[in-house]
User: Fold this.
Amino acid sequence: MSNGNKTVDVLDGSKITDLVHNGEVFDKFVDHKFEELDQNHDGKLSVKELVPAIAEIGAAMGLPAQGSSPDSDKIYSEYLLLTTWGYKVLMEFTRGKKEGKVSKSQFKTVLSDILLGMADGLKRDPVVILRIDGEDLQEFVSGSRFEAEAISIYSEIEEAKDLKECICKALDKLTVEHGMPPSSDQWVRSNVVEPALEFIDNQGTEAIVSQTNFLEAFRKVLDNVVVRLREHPVIVAHSGNTFDGRGIKRILSNKSELEKTLDSAWKSLPKDHHGKLPREYLRVALDVIAPAISLPPYGAVDQMDAITGEVFKMVKAEEGSTLNQEEFNQLMLEIISSIMLQLEGNPVTVSSNAVVNEPLNSTLLSPPE
Assistant:
C-alpha cells in the first residue's frame, strides 16, 4: 500500500490492555460504566443491559452499527468476541442467577474478559484505520498496471445487462490496495460512486459492454471517483490476515505450551455432573485456544468455518456423548493437526474493509475524569 492511504491509527489492543491493567483507572471506569448501564438503578445488570457495552466497543473503534455492513460485521466477529465464546462469557455469569443478572464485581470480570479478549485479537491482527483521499487511486489509474488489471477484472465479471452495471461490478472488485473504499458501503455508494457514474447515465443504457468501451468508461469513472475522494476523504478500518497453519505447527512443537493451552481450555469449559465435557462444546473449545494457534474465532471467516466443519466431520468430533480430559486432549490434538494440514495445502487469506467514523470517538475506552 503506497503513501496515498494515510494511516490515521493502528488499533493493536495496547490502549485497551493498559486500561484494564491500570487498577485504579479501571475501577473508576467500571464504576462509571456500570452506573451508566444500570438503567433501573437496582445495582444489577441484565444481559439486555450489557449489550450496549459490547456495541459501544465497536463505536470506540469507529465501526458502524453491527448489522449495517457485512465487512464491519466480520470485524465485530473477529475482534469483539461476538461469537459463541463471547456469548458464553456473559452466560457463565448469569447462569443460575435470578433473572440472569450480574453484580458490579461480576460486571468488572465480564468486561475485563471481553476487553482483554478483544485486545488479544487486535494484537494478533491489528485493525489499521486509513484515510483514503484519492491519491492511491490516482496512482493506480495513471500507472502502467491499470490496463492489465482492468482487463482481468473485466474477464471475471459475469454477464451484465448494460455498461453501468458492468462498471459497478468492477468497482466492487477494487480494494483499499487500489485506493478504493468499499463501494458497497451506503455512504460511499451515495456520495462517491453514484456521482462518478452520472456520465454513463447521460449516455443511456444502450452502450455496448465491449472491452474497449469498458476500459474507457472504467478509467473515466475512476477519475471521477478520485475527484470525489479529494473532496470527501473516507475513513476505512482495514484488517487482513493469512491463515496458513504456522501457528498450529509452532504450538505442536512446544509440548509444554500445548499442554498448558489445552489444560486452560479444559478448565474453562462447562462439565456435566460427572466432570465430563459434552461434545457440543468442542467448537467453543477451539475458539478458546484460537488465539494461541493463530486461528480466527468460529463465525468470523467463512472459509475457515468450512475447513473446521470438514475436519469435525472427518474426525467424528461431534459423535458420541461426553469426554474426559484425556479424551478431550487427544481429540483437540487431532482436530488442530488436521486443520494445520488443510491450511498448509491451501492457506486462507482474508481482508475486511469497513467505512467508519473518526476512530476512538466513544467514551467507552476513555476513563472518566
User: Anything to note?
Assistant: Strands lie at 6-11, 45-46, 101-102, 127-132, 234-243, 277-278, 322-323, 348-355. Residues 268 and 288 are 9 Å apart (CA to CA). The longest strand covers residues 234-243. The two ends are 39 Å apart (CA to CA).
